[in-house]
Structures are given as structure tokens and as C-alpha cells.
Protein: Aryl-sulfate sulfotransferase
Organism: Alteraurantiacibacter aestuarii
Amino acid sequence: MEDIYHPPVKHSVEIAGHKTSISLEPFFWNLLREAAEAEGLPVNALVARIDAERIVAENPPGLASAIRLWLASSGRSPD
């Protein structure tokens, strides 16, 4: 099992034609990649969908938090 306490790692993603950086722990990057693959989407497309969902929330969290929450609520677990 990987070190789940590894500090966040920054990666660039593109959302609606705009590049942004997101810092997530490797544990969450792995879950995000697995979720995107399971849905047949590129990671950028899944992040864009999560972003669209979060911005209409009553109290939208930051994007990194939204990704973590989405992964937790979708029941994703590491293989």
C-alpha cells in the first residue's frame, strides 16, 4: 500500500480551456485517475464535471476539496 500520508502533489489540469493547478495527495490522484478510467473519461473531463457540480453548490468548497468530497461520496476506494 502506498504512503497515504504523503503530502499533496500539484498537477495541472485544463477546465473549459483554462489551465489550473490542483494539489492533491497521491492517494486522491490515484483514485481520481481510476474514477476517470471507470467512466471512460479523461481526468480533465471528470475534474471539469466535478467543478461544474461544485460551483452550483450553496457553499462551494475549493476545487481540491470538492474532488476529495466527490471521491468519498462516490464510494471510491483504492485497489
Notes: The mean pLDDT is 92.
